[in-house]
């Protein structure tokens, strides 16, 4: 063992506790990272197996070849195939069996009257395929539906809605259908395909409720005869299929399904988690750097002695790095183990909370072992590099001088560089906001973060003075001492606070952005919606089944109601790219929504006319009277005349088309929302009651006022924010560990001083208060910095999004949440200070004053 | 208590601090060390007493126990009439803050506080003196109290009040420590080798300050030292060896103290020193009790 290594190892052994914080920070970051990777891989593999099992009996699938995908959507819309094709396929040589697969959206209502699912994953219904090989679902209990009104539901959905065999409930297709459950099904051996709900009906029922026209199916499932493999089957099928219809193997279908979940949902999910583990590791970098910086400073004399005795710079640097390396490797390995443990724990936990986590062993790939280890080691070594180099630079003479731990961080160079960076950051950011470019704005955000970190030590002195001023007044000499201690090493205080600052900045960024999104929605609704109430189903993502298209008409028939207009959704390709169409009654639309300036007339769209927003019209170079071609999913292309161009698109969408124009191309009919305005003189609550009464007969969707509608639209944002907060808790925890660690080291460093204070009459509780207040001050500095940075970045993000997208974004500072964030930051500081404060208070006076 | 009361002959009968039957054992079993082995000593008020003895004689331990920094294994320690053993940590801390002053060898001052703030520290900790409302730099003139004002002049640091300890020389730092020790008008000031780290001139200044405080301001000082020159500033010297009180000298001079110490080094007992002013306080222990006659020897 060479000298550097021997020195590091003995030093590590002697000062294990000093590195406890570093160890934990690395461990937590690595565990998060490893857990995410392992869980992602495991989920992916499990879904593979599940889809493989579920579709193993299907050898080929016949379906329309083309899909239309609108921007921001993961799954395209595919036209149905004629069910008549089943007979043709069935007669093809090599085919053992063929069955139409009819699919649509349909939401079950649970025993408590509340709809099941709908918050993200799709709520599906289809025909129950009697051939068990072709049916992805297996009958687990009961029997298959035999007559109209009988259904099989997947067991997960039944449990969620507390439904049993024999129960009668409502299925929103979206028209409410009375159904009786006769059987429960499983998917690939599980209670369901993740959280997707499925209702299997008889084929006639499915055709009646789920397709626009009878005799249509989403696809045809085909089973091969003995000795025929999937590829041969597809080759045999392809020649008999009409144009625009394709055959793919069952294998390909399974891969597509898996890709749909793992490629999109899982990738998004893991990316999201990886971003947050990145934030956590970034925060950890600061804590680790700080620990090593302090340890090196405290060891100045020791290192100087080594240098005086003939150790080279390189040897001193190396011994510090080896120390960091040992901590890094041990902590990363522990973190990896913890991460795998977390993944295993989640695998066990998910089923318990009703999320059917597909069974299977944990998948631990080489990547998910190597990456977290490498990241942990690099982060730890990288953070320790500068302090190690500084250790190497220790002058041999320093051994003879009084140790001076205090280094001024507020150098002029730092102030100049920091101010320059800050100016550059603001300039780049503002350019990004004005131009508008999200990339520039993002770059500016990174620069702003860097500027904050560089300026930290410069700002620390002033900030702690200002923040500590009331303390001095309220807590007397104890408070004054706390503030002065926090001021001792501005660089150290700043580095400690920086970790918390980043955590708080990200929290406030999301808080501000979330509040702004809500304000935007509020503004959009109040600006564009001119009606009184809105009928909608509370759902988001792919869930829910929308509203019955008959609802709008039924509501309109009420005497209290002036206009009720339903907004449906269609898709078409315009100029080669998918576009969402708003299918509605344009006259009613104009009466309940503020469309801004309208050129042309919304009144006469007819079957061959469309209305377009001004922005889209500019993009496509369209004017009133021009024609444009829309390609639909059924393969047809029609020419439409632009009859109106309107200004506001927020709620009405970019293209408006009449129901009659859409009818030939429609798939399953549903409205996403029905907007209602009352007649003059109708009392709001009276009108609402009338609408609710009608709605009850249509599956009881929610009737909301404008404000309620805006608020419920924001519900998804709150859910997202909650998730973000939960994930950021780790980063904040690591920042806290950093504060605790710094303070513990500081207490150790000030042993004599504490002893002196105790000797001349500082009580234990005064010592405790002093350390605690120092901690709170450091946390306050980090919190205030984080709020400022996060607020600024939130503003940038909102403004840049505003510039980069069609809809107008409103900027809002949440008045309640930000003080809560600040309070949490301060409480965190108080909490972080508890242990070091306790330790300082426990110091033995005599030992402390006797310490060399 | 005979020996104890006999030490208070020169001035009044007030007792600033005393220990009785003081035993302090560090460690346990085979490794146990008896740092104090049954000591009775009284530190009379208004006197400057020096505690001397070779390294390991227990002089620092005696001071720590008498000052309430450490606790006795058995026996009792008093500040005034308060028995320290009956106090919990909090009350002991408050007693140190309000009734005892300290001057240590090094590291006497809090580096983040100014000279003025260091001087008033015990009072500030008590929330007295400058008052809670004027913490920090604002109250650093330290002149609100005429006593402290006078102290500042005595130690000669008026122009240094706003400086930090790091900006002062070692001697100046010790003078600040002396001012701090007397600032709260404590019953007794304990000084632990206060000149140990100073050159002789600075040391002389500090010792003169301690002496003036006793003689002109009627304060009480107990000083641990191994330096005969320092001890000569005291009104009386008590000698410790192996945890016991072995001798006592009134109005010491450096030479006499040095001779007495040499006697320890020679391994013989103090008997040989004819000029000694010995009133042994070790009466409870037979070994020394016979050695230094319990009846007074003339000065």
UniProtKB/TrEMBL annotation, chain B:
Q: Which keywords label this protein?
A: ATP-binding, Nucleotide-binding, Transport
Ranges for domain ABC transporter come to: 17-267
Residue spans with biased composition (Gly residues)? 283-299
Descriptive protein name: ABC transporter ATP-binding protein
Source organism (scientific name): Streptomyces tauricus
| Coiled coil location | none
Write down the superkingdom of origin. Bacteria
Q: Where is the composition biased (Basic and acidic residues)?
A: 265-279
From the UniProt record, which GO molecular function terms apply? ATP binding
């Amino acid at each position: 063992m060479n000298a550097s290594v021997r020195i590091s190892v003995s030093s590590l052994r002697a000062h294990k506790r000093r590195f406890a914080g570093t160890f934990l920070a690395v461990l937590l970051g690595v565990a998060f990272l490893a857990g995410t990777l392992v869980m992602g891989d495991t989920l992916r593999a499990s879904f593979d197996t599940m889809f493989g099992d579920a579709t193993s009996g299907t050898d080929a699938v016949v379906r329309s070849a083309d899909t239309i995908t609108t921007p921001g959507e993961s799954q395209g819309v595919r036209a149905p195939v004629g069910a008549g094709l089943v007979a043709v396929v069935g007669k093809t040589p090599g085919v053992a069996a063929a069955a139409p697969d009819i699919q649509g959206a349909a939401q079950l209502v649970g025993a408590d009257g509340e709809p099941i699912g709908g918050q993200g994953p799709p709520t599906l219904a289809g025909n129950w395929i009697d051939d068990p090989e072709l049916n992805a679902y297996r009958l687990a209990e009961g029997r298959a539906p035999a007559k109209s009104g009988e259904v099989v539901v997947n067991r997960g959905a039944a449990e969620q809605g507390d439904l049993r065999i024999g129960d009668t409930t409502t299925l929103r297709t979206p028209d409410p259908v009375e159904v009786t459950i006769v059987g429960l099904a499983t998917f690939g051996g599980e209670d369901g395909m993740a959280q997707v709900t499925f209702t299997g009906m008889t084929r006639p029922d499915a055709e009646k409720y789920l397709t626009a026209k009878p005799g249509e199916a989403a696809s045809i499932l085909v089973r091969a005869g003995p000795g025929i493999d999937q590829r041969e089957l597809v080759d045999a099928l392809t020649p008999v299929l009409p144009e625009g219809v394709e055959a793919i193997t069952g294998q390909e279908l399974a891969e597509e399904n898996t890709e749909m979940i793992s490629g999109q949902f899982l990738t998004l999910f893991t990316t999201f988690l990886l971003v947050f583990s990145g934030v956590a590791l970034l925060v950890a970098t600061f804590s680790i750097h700080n620990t090593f910086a302090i340890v090196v400073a405290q060891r100045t004399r020791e290192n100087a002695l080594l240098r005086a005795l003939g150790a080279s710079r390189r040897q001193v640097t190396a011994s510090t790095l080896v120390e960091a390396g040992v901590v890094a490797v041990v902590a990363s390995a522990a973190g990896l183990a913890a991460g795998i443990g977390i993944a295993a724990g989640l695998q066990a936990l998910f089923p318990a909370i009703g999320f059917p986590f597909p069974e299977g062993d944990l998948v631990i790939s080489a990547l998910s072992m190597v990456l977290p280890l490498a990241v942990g080691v690099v982060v730890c070594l990288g953070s320790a590099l500068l302090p190690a180099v500084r250790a190497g630079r220790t002058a041999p003479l320093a051994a003879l001088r009084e140790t001076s731990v205090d280094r001024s961080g507020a150098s002029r160079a730092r102030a100049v560089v920091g101010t320059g960076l800050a100016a550059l950051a603001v300039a780049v950011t503002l350019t990004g906001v004005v131009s508008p470019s999200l990339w520039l704005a993002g770059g500016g955000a990174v620069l702003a973060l860097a500027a904050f970190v560089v300026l930290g030590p410069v700002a620390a002195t002033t900030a702690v003075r200002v923040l500590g001023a009331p303390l001095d007044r309220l807590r007397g000499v104890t408070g004054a001492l706390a503030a002065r201690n926090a001021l001792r090493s501005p660089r150290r205080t700043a580095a400690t606070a920086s970790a918390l600052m980043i955590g708080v900045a990200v929290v406030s960024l999301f808080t501000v952005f979330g509040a702004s999104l809500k304000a935007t929605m509020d503004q959009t609704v109040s600006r564009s919606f001119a009606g009184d109430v809105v009928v909608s189903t509370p759902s988001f993502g792919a869930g829910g089944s929308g509203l019955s298209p008959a609802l709008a008409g039924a509501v309109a028939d009420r005497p209290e109601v002036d206009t009720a207009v339903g907004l449906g959704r269609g898709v078409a390709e315009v100029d080669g790219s998918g576009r969402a169409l708003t299918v509605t009654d344009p006259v009613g639309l104009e009466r309940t929504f503020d469309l801004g300036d309208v050129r042309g007339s919304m009144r006469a769209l007819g079957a061959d006319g469309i209305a377009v927003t001004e922005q889209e019209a500019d993009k496509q170079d369209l004017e009133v009277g021009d024609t444009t071609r829309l390609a639909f999913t059924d393969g047809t292309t029609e020419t439409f005349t632009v009859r109106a161009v309107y200004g506001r698109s927020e709620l009405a969408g970019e293209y408006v088309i009449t129901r009659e124009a859409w009818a030939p191309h429609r798939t399953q009919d549903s409205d996403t929302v029905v907007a209602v305005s009352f007649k003059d003189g109708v009392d709001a609550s009276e009108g609402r009651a009338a609408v609710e009464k009608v709605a009850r007969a249509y599956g009881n969707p929610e009737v909301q006022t404008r404000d309620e509608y805006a608020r419920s639209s924001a519900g998804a944002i709150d859910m997202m924010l909650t998730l973000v907060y939960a994930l950021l808790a780790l980063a904040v925890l690591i920042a806290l560990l950093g504060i605790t660690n710094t303070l513990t080291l500081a207490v150790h460093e000030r042993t004599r001083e504490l002893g002196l204070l105790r000797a001349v009459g500082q009580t234990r509780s005064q010592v405790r208060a002093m350390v605690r207040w120092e901690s709170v001050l450091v946390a306050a500095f980090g919190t205030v910095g984080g709020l400022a940075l996060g607020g600024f970045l939130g503003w940038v993000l909102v403004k840049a999004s505003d510039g980069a997208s069609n809809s107008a974004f409103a900027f809002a500072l949440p008045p309640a949440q930000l003080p809560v964030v600040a309070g949490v930051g301060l409480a965190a500081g108080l909490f972080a200070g508890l242990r070091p404060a306790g330790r300082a208070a426990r110091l033995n006076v005599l030992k402390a004053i006797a310490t060399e | 208590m005979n020996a104890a009361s006999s030490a208070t002959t020169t001035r009044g009968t007030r007792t600033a601090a005393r220990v009785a039957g003081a035993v302090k054992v560090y460690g346990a079993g085979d490794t146990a060390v008896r740092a104090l082995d049954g000591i009775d000593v009284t530190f009379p008020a208004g006197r400057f007493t020096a505690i001397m003895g070779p390294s390991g004689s227990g002089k620092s331990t005696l001071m720590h126990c008498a000052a309430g920094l450490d606790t006795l294994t058995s026996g009792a320690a008093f500040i005034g009439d308060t028995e320290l053993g009956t106090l919990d940590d909090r009350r002991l801390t408050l007693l140190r803050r309000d009734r005892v002053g300290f001057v240590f060898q090094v590291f006497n001052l809090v580096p983040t506080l100014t000279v003025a703030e260091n001087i008033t520290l015990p009072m500030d900790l008590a929330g007295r003196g400058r008052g809670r409302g004027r913490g920090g730099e604002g109250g650093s003139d330290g002149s609100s109290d005429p006593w402290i004002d006078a102290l500042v002049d005595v130690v000669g640091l008026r122009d240094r009040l706003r400086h930090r300890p790091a900006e002062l020389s070692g001697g100046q730092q010790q003078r600040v420590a002396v001012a701090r020790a007397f600032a709260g008008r404590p019953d007794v000031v304990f000084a632990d080798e206060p000149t140990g780290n100073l050159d002789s001139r600075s040391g002389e200044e500090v010792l003169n300050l301690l002496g003036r405080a006793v003689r002109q301001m009627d304060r009480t000082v107990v000083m641990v030292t191994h330096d005969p020159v320092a001890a000569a500033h005291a009104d009386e010297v008590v000698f410790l060896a192996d945890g016991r009180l072995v001798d006592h000298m009134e109005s010491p001079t450096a030479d006499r103290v040095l001779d007495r110490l040499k006697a320890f080094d020679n391994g013989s007992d103090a008997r040989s020193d004819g000029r000694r002013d010995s009133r042994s306080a070790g009466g409870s222990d037979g070994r020394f009790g016979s050695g230094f006659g319990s009846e007074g020897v003339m000065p």
